[in-house]
Amino acid sequence: MTHQRSLAARLRLILVLPLASLAIVLSAKTIEDFSVYGNMRKIGTLSQVCVDSSDLVHELQRERGLVGGLLGNSGDEFVARLPNQRERTDDRRADLMATLARVNLADYDQDLADTFEAWLRRIEQLDGLRQRVDARTVPAAEAFDFFTTTNGMVIDSIARVAHLVEDADVGLELSAYVSLLLGKERSGAERALMTNMFSRDTFAEGAYQRFLALVSQQQSYAHAFRLFASDAGIAALDEVMQQPVLKDTEEMRSIARSKGEHGSLGVDAVVWYDKQTEKIDLLKGVEDLLADQLRATAASKRSYAFWSLVLYLVIGVGLSVFSVWISQRMSNNLTSGIHESINQLAAASRSLGRASVKVTASAQS
After folding, report:
1. Cβ pair 146, 191 in contact under 8 A
2. Contact call for residues 133 and 70 (beta carbons, < 8 A)
3. Is the pTM higher than 0.90?
């Protein structure tokens, strides 16, 4: 009996070893899918923060441009536009604040939470700046720097999300998205700067070099975008670059370059603002496309990881049940077979013994 149990145990071991190896592989895959699912769920939540943030930046960029024109000599042309724009900015600010109220950023990344906390403190100063703009008691450079720094903080927060991504495809899409945001922010800064300069009809001290730097930075970020973006994203940007308004803004840029720091610029500030705004709105369309792609990719990978996780869990449980069942069945069959063989041998032995007795008795007779 002890020998039978030992043999059955060895049989179970032979069966369990390959199943255990398979279970290890399944466990590793399950852990990987669980990690992907968790990361994509995180990115899905944070992507809404990114979208609401970029929408606010877009409106702050518009307001910065109008402020630049108002604080120039053509200020009256922009006064009527500011109230409506401020309302749009405030609406987007409320959307972002509502999103942040639903999401505890510290659960995702403390640096990200700290950056937004600093931004919240800074954006509280916006109403005070607006009052100074209306009274025209704030220097144009100070107002410009306020909006630019505020926008930069938001974009830096979005860029921080890219460091939290574990999936290469999503990481590339986020990098393209951030590159476009950075380039678009420089376009917005150029709009505000040159609206003010065209209103003055001449470059202020240091403004010409800043203008050239902004143009160069836009080119650099456009190149970075093309390195990271999908074919659809690149095609969307190429389509924007073929629009007639790009030729219009480039002509006004050329005038500013040719005049330099000396002489009258001779460009209508309102025309410049409207043309540059049209260009930036086209870039906003590409931005929205990238945001939709990002959310769709994260959702797709999250769904795939979830169902893959479910599948491997089902397979793992099934294999466990199967291994127990098959090992028990084989053990029972083996034990039954051994018992039957022993019984047959015992019967044969008894028959042989009886035959032997008869032979012996016959011999003695």
Report:
1. no
2. yes
3. no
Residue among 257, 355, 331, 229 nearest 14 (CA): 331
Distance CA 280, CA 257 (A): 21
Cα separation, 116 vs 53, in Å, equals 10
d(CA 365, CA 359): 10
pLDDT one-digit tens code per residue, 239-286: 999 999 999 999 999 999 998 888 899 999 999 999 999 999 999 999
Q: Name the one residue in this structure whose structure tokens are 């990978």.
A: 301
Phi, psi of 181 (to 5 degrees): -60, -45
Closest by CA to 128, choosing from 146, 141, 145, is 146
Contact predicate 26/315, CB 8 Å: yes
Q: Name the phi and psi angles at 111, rounded to 5.
A: -60, -40
Torsion of CA 249, 251, 256, 259, to 10 degrees: -170
Judged on CB neighbours under 10 Å (0-12, 13-18, 19+), 362 is: exposed
Residues 6 or more apart from 21 whose CB is under 8 A from it? none
Number of Cβ within 10 Å of residue 365's Cβ equals 5
State the Cα–Cα distance between residues 199 and 64, nearest whole angstrom.
14
